[in-house]
Amino acid sequence: MNEENAQPPRTRHRPPAAEEGAGPTALALRRVAIDTYRENVAYLHRDCPVYRAEGFQALSKVEVCANGQRILATLNVVDDESIVGCRELGVSEDAFAQLGVADGHPASVSQAEPPGSIPALHRKINGERLDRDDFRAIVRDIAEHRYSKIELTAFVVASNQGELDREEVYFLTDAMVETGRRLDWHERLVVDKHCIGGIPGNRTSMLVVPIVAAHGMLCPKTSSRAITSPAGTADTMEVLATVELPFERLGEIVREHRGCLAWGGTARLSPADDVLISVERPLSIDSPGQMVASILSKKTAAGSTHLLLDIPVGPTAKVRSMPEAQRLRKLFQYVASRLNLVLDVVITDGRQPVGYGIGPALEARDVMRVLECDPRAPNDLRQKALRLAGRMLEFDPDVRGGDGFAIARDILDSGRAAAKMDAIIRAQGARGFDHNAPPLGRLSFEVFAAESGVVTGIDNLQIARIARFAGAPKIAGAGVDLMCKLGESVVAGEPLYRVHAGYPADLEFAREASARATGFTLGTADELPHVFVEF
Amino acid sequence: MNEENAQPPRTRHRPPAAEEGAGPTALALRRVAIDTYRENVAYLHRDCPVYRAEGFQALSKVEVCANGQRILATLNVVDDESIVGCRELGVSEDAFAQLGVADGHPASVSQAEPPGSIPALHRKINGERLDRDDFRAIVRDIAEHRYSKIELTAFVVASNQGELDREEVYFLTDAMVETGRRLDWHERLVVDKHCIGGIPGNRTSMLVVPIVAAHGMLCPKTSSRAITSPAGTADTMEVLATVELPFERLGEIVREHRGCLAWGGTARLSPADDVLISVERPLSIDSPGQMVASILSKKTAAGSTHLLLDIPVGPTAKVRSMPEAQRLRKLFQYVASRLNLVLDVVITDGRQPVGYGIGPALEARDVMRVLECDPRAPNDLRQKALRLAGRMLEFDPDVRGGDGFAIARDILDSGRAAAKMDAIIRAQGARGFDHNAPPLGRLSFEVFAAESGVVTGIDNLQIARIARFAGAPKIAGAGVDLMCKLGESVVAGEPLYRVHAGYPADLEFAREASARATGFTLGTADELPHVFVEF
User: Fold this and answer.
1) Residues of B with CB below 8 A from A32's CB?
2) Is B13's pLDDT higher than 50?
3) Would you say B200 and B171 are in contact if contact means Cβ atoms under 8 Å apart?
4) Which of A204, A246, A315, A470 is the most buried (most CB within 10 A)?
């Protein structure tokens, strides 16, 4: 500890650096060919006169300015003129791209002002309640990349479990909507669905979207890629079609086909959320407040008027008990009503993975088989998709309550959903996929039942882990193919699942993981966990 | 949000990389002349076969191994062979120094295993109580630099205000002692003093150490440099003598002179604390639990048997009320008793800065004037130092309770303290300092009273801020020289204080800050804030 601890501002207030191109602080911009991922880095030579005059320190936050663009970066000090010279201002690859100028362009660098919302952050760290303006200021600073990793983490942890009341969650959500782009489809009814996650193989979006779009509802679905799971909807859809589309092209497809299945990363709908996720993921923090703010801000920004939310419950799901699911539903409902978003929440069976395949190509196979009413299609995936689609169809004032399921089933069984999916795939750019010969990893092994019995448990987390070790989602053909599900009887020596991998090393990692724990529990029929599913 | 969110390990478990120097993963180590401060960075070319085979990502945590040394680093991906080639493993300057080998030495790199204590961290984030083994595991991982900035921050924020009970604070403190070096002076009585901080000019250590050492007590005082304040004891002592001494030399000085005043950074007494401070400082988090663990772990590791702790209370001090000070005292007492450390706590007047000068050279001037009983010496600094030294002398079983103050005053007034200070300064390496001509910043301005009245408030934080803007502690001669103190009457137009700076820009920043708020409040004598000081 230091004896004296008066607390002056984190960085010293400096007047803005002299205008770029003029005066003694002008430097020549240089692209330093180092990829620092999402973290902008600026490089200054230790003998650079600006470095010496400004009293910068390594790792301090600086503002780089060139051609009217300003970006924030972390400073590294260089002692090698071949990397950056004394009259140069080096920036990492991504930062250079953001500035959008040529090598050698005049640029300036100055101390970054501390974010204005830091006092509000400190109040939250100390457990105080924040008001709407506090959340606006914090979210704006986060979206503008003004927070350091330390400050971001402090905000996420301080707002964790129980620390935000429902009014604060609404303020946070609303502030996240305000900072991003907001779409307007100029229609009365714009529907979407979302699952809070945690269940491998749960690719219902790829069935629900073609069904409701075939009915004529507007459903501009954007999805994420997997970060910690074996596949996101965007990863699985990418097996079938291009998912990274220019924003304008997406709009055309939606207007023509009433739906799409694209990657949402390009839309900048809730930029603060994208930044927050960068610290929430590594910490596996997924508190109710942050989950609600993240999901509802993106859906509102995407122009949705009606949202169907899927909360799976099970012993290895994100939500483990019915009371917990009901509390979460109430929080979603409160915030949605403040946002004027019509919300329907369904609590579903999250005791085991959905379908057979886990991994992009395996899941695409299951989805296409359901669409084509193939006898090998997994029935649980079909049933869940029909129920969700049915509830969404009931957002249509012309559909009578209770009729949705039958309408959805009719759309699916008549082939109209498959035709709609085909149209969407062709519009986005078909990749050519045959569910009779899916491009699976060429290496595989099977995991066998050690004893006879009834399957009484399938661990979502362990099955996901094994699929990740096998290479999913990076290797599209890698993953786990389940050969039996909850409640089925197996005889000792029968296969439980097959693992596919693209590389020998991956296969071995998956084999070791499944040897430590198969993810399956065998027992007697009366040991099956109960589930109270609402619909 | 991502739809599927099963949570596999943060990094994939890979077998350790092949032995260095053998096999396909051997690379040639290369020093990349980039200073990334305390954050180790490793650089791999995008076409490096190891990078491709291991599936690393930019910013992932890797373990670099060379010559039997292992360090953790953050990965940057390079696209320029002149920075790092395809068969090379680049490391930043500080990381290279830690490995202690020559350029070109064989080295290997592998995915870093996630720290073993992460599950305990998650339990703390979720508000659970941790046990002794949890704290041991967390503190060990922190000391070994296994935590990312995100994880460190999560631990600090989750353990903030009210989140650790007193038993947990003891576990944390004890774990911090265990991970570092622990000194043993082979004496029955090893005394130290510490102030929790927040009061500018509070340089009592530089008076107390010579007094108690002159009495014959062993007082091996190590101090910190300022991080957010205008001067730490180490910064002020450095005006008089060398403070960065090899550890062995420090031991010799202490044995010969019974005391020292050195910088503690080289001793590695509580390495986890040094790491935690790197996130506590930027967040200005100084929770009671972390303060107690930080102070008591360092003192215990330094071999102290008796500690005098100074808790200043005042409206702009760290502790703002008497009940808060008493709660903090109780926590210190509980943990100290568990550590078998004899602790005496004094609650002192923290309503204003101590002495006149704020900044290294100005504070050194005040200290030397007190030691030499110069009539210009600030009386409050003299009185406070005598009272603290008196309490410390009473740790000596041969000193009767209540006699300490008189003994301390006699040691000071007889010149024995000055002689002891002189001996310590010469032993550490005298710099040559004359308090009649202190080396102050050549630029200065004065701040004047806008009205007549009694000084009823001096804001510790604002005065510290102005001194920082003026350049302290980096510029030793910069700072604030107070010309009147609480309770004194001033006439409109009289100077309140003088600001010294070394550079015109600094002078202007300080001038702007003092123009926004002088830090002084003028009023009537009955508006003086009361203070309840215990001794």
Assistant:
1) 80, 83
2) no
3) no
4) A470
pLDDT digits (tens, 9 = 90+) for B388-423: 999 999 999 999 999 999 999 999 999 999 999 999
A134-193 residues touching B, CB cutoff 8 A: 148-154, 156-158, 160-162
Q: CB of B97 within 8 Å of any CB in chain A?
A: no
Segments of chain A scoring below 50 in pLDDT = 1-24, 535
- The HSE-up count of residue B414 (CA atoms within 13 Å, CB side) is 12
Q: Which of B131, B134, B274, B286 is catalytic?
A: B286
CATH topology of domain A191-267+302-428: Pyrimidine Nucleoside Phosphorylase; Chain A, domain 2 (3.40.1030)
* Domain boundaries B118-179, corresponding CATH code: 1.20.970.10
The predicted structure's pLDDT at residue B150: 87
Nearest residue of B to residue A465, measured between CA atoms: B8
Task: Provide the whole-model pTM.
Answer: 0.82
Q: In chain B, where are the structural domains located?
A: 27-111, 118-179, 191-428, 443-527
pLDDT at B65: 92
ω into residue A473 within 30 of 0, thus cis? yes
A269-310 pLDDT, tens per residue? 888 888 888 788 778 787 899 999 999 999 999 999 999 999
E strands of B26-144, at which residues?
A: 27-31, 34-35, 41-45, 61-66, 69-78, 88-91, 106-111
CB proximity under 8 Å: A 268-287 to B: 279, 282-286
Burial of B85 (0-12, 13-18, 19+ CB in 10 A): middle
Q: CA angle, corner A493, sides to A487 and A498, nearest 5?
A: 75
Closest residue to B461, CB basis, from A7, A122, A194? A7
Reduced to 3 states (helix: H, G, I; strand: E, B; else coil), residue A221 is strand
DSSP A1-52: --S------SS---PPPPPTTSSTT-EEEEE--EE-TTS-EEEEETT-HHHH
What CATH class does B191-428 carry? alpha beta
B46 touches chain A (CB under 8 A): yes
Q: How many angstroms separate the CA of residue A127 from the nearest CA in chain B?
A: 9
Positions of E strands within B215-256: 219-223
- What is the pLDDT at residue A87? 92
Residue B51 has pLDDT above 70, yes or no: yes
| Pairwise CB contact (< 8 Å): A153 & B158 | no
Class assignment of domain A27-111? Answer: mainly beta
pLDDT tens sequence across B260-281: 999 877 567 888 888 888 788 7
pLDDT of A267: 62
Closest by Cβ to A284, choosing from B7, B230, B231:
B7
Residue type at A501? A
pLDDT score recorded for residue A62: 87
CATH architecture of the domain A114-180+268-295 equals Up-down Bundle (1.20)
Whether the per-residue pLDDT at B534 is higher than 80: the answer is no
- CATH of region A443-527: 3.90.1170.30
Kindly give the residue spans of alpha helices, DSSP state H, lying in B55-204.
Answer: 93-99, 118-125, 132-143, 149-158, 166-179
